């Protein structure tokens, strides 16, 4: 990703480093939302079928993130309101950062999913001499394809696509 940033800066693009709200905060809000499913239906389906979920899905099991006494009674809907307010507040934290920084898209490591408009851009190859970190065996992925993800603001798919097109064209040059 650093080489993409360097090339974009050299081409005259402004790259801003932002201080993002903690992603664990979003994860905890999401897990509370998912925990409203009192029977944990997706995992019940796996169990009934004698299957095990893939590791990524198992790691997101809401039962691992919420306090067992957390939703004592859903009839009052106060937890629904609380979660909705927390989602709104977290989204507003991001909106404030987005507005104040005046950014078009976020340049992020490639990810397997996003609830916002996003595009993964293939760029470069892994290089074990550059990507080595303690506790990480970079030789396993050496020469493998790499890339980054561009994430746009909600409901701004067209802006995200146009910005991606500009960036991809710049990186091809």
Question: Which characteristics define this entry?
Answer:
single chain, globular, 3-stranded antiparallel beta sheet, 46% helix, 3 strands, 173 residues, mainly alpha, 7 helices, 2 domains
Summarize the structure.
The protein has 173 residues and is mostly helical.
Low-confidence spans: none
Strand order of the largest sheet: 1-3-2
**Helical fraction:** 40-55%
Name the overall outline. Answer: globular
CA radius of gyration = 20 Å
Mean pLDDT: 83
Number of strands: 3
Q: From N to C, what is the helix and strand string? A: HHHHHEEHEH
Total count of domains:
2
Number of helices: 7
First-last Cα distance: 17 Å
Structural class by sheet pairing and helices: mainly alpha
Portion of residues in beta strands equals 5-15%
Biggest beta sheet summary: 3 strands, antiparallel
InterPro entries: AS_sf
Protein name: Amidase domain-containing protein
SSE blueprint:
Elements: H1 2-10, H2 23-35, H3 41-48, H4 55-59, H5 78-101, E1 106-109, E2 118-125, H6 128-131, E3 145-151, H7 157-172
Antiparallel strand pairs: 1-3, 2-3
């Amino acid at each position: 990703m650093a080489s993409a940033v360097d090339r974009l800066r050299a081409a005259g693009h402004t790259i801003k480093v932002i201080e993002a709200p903690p992603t664990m905060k979003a994860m905890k809000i999401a897990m509370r939302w998912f925990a409203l499913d009192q029977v944990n239906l997706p995992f019940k389906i796996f169990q009934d079928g004698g299957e095990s979920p893939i590791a990524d899905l198992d790691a997101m099991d809401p039962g691992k993130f919420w306090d067992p006494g957390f939703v004592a009674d859903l009839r009052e809907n106060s937890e629904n309101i609380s979660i909705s307010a927390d989602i709104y507040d977290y989204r507003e934290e991001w909106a404030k950062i987005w507005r104040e920084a005046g950014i078009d898209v976020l340049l992020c490591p490639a990810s397997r999913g996003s609830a916002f408009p996003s595009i993964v851009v293939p760029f470069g190859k892994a290089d074990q001499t550059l990507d080595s970190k303690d506790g990480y065996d970079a030789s396993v992925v050496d020469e493998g394809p790499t890339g980054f993800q561009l994430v746009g603001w909600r409901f701004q798919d067209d802006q995200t696509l146009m910005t991606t097109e500009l960036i991809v064209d710049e990186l091809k040059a």
